[in-house]
From TrEMBL:
Species whose genome carries this gene: Qingshengfaniella alkalisoli
Domain ABC transporter: 2-250
UniProtKB keywords: ATP-binding, Nucleotide-binding, Transport
Keyword ATP-binding: yes
InterPro entries xrefs: AAA+_ATPase (IPR003593), ABC_AA/LPS_Transport (IPR051120), ABC_transporter-like_ATP-bd (IPR003439), ABC_transporter-like_CS (IPR017871), BCA_ABC_TP_C (IPR032823), P-loop_NTPase (IPR027417)
Protein name in the entry: ABC transporter ATP-binding protein
PROSITE patterns assigned: ABC_TRANSPORTER_1 (PS00211), ABC_TRANSPORTER_2 (PS50893)
Molecular function as annotated in GO: ATP binding; ATP hydrolysis activity
Any one annotated GO CC term: plasma membrane
Amino acid sequence: MIKVENLHKHFGGFRAVEGASLEIAEGSITGLIGPNGAGKSTLFNVIAGVLKPTSGRVTMQGEDITGLPPHELFHRGVLRTFQIAHEFSSMTVRENLMMVPGEQRGETLWNAWFQRKQIRDDERALLKKADEVLEFLTIDHLRDEKAGNLSGGQKKLLELGRTMMVDAKVVFLDEVGAGVNRTLLNTIGDAIIRLNKERGYTFCLIEHDMDFIGKMCDPVIVMAEGKVLAEGSHDEIQNNEQVIEAYLGTGLKNKTPVPEAQP
């Protein structure tokens, strides 16, 4: 679905992404892992149009989307969440969801005067959809709570809910588990799996929690120093010598065995 070819992103002399190539298959939940500074979030930002690449190419279903701005990608169904949630803190949870769909009729003064009935109909439909999303995510009891009062995990659920308010095709989730307790992380994981299986969402997620990655993702792609280091199943990645070296600084083959204790 998404194909990245020889992608580079440089900031002056710093090469954040250096020739990365990968594919995100339609209908998959792909994991993207790697040590801090590997270039994972920068790669997400380039794919999602937040940053323009220095060079390289990104295609979606064969169509070149390299460098398209986020609002154009949004209308094509490409959405990206961030490690730190971006909510409208003074608005309610439900209102945050209702803000998502673009080009709403009530946004223009002309329509506000002359299409009041249609605007009311649109708002009722949005309200119904928002409530359905909140129920799906099991946070419908928070619909009238100010979004700024939510916990970190609840804000991550709200961000996931935003992707459900539009026709999302592929969603990039950046460290969905950061600052989230285990119970809420399981809730988020279950919602992602349901969206994948029941609604056909394609996901690519950055995460450091390998248990979560093992439960959710196939395949898993590993980045290091701006490049793709390895790709495979969770078990294959855990036993990959290059991956172990990238994370720990030394491979298993180079480790000195600990002598057995003498009786």
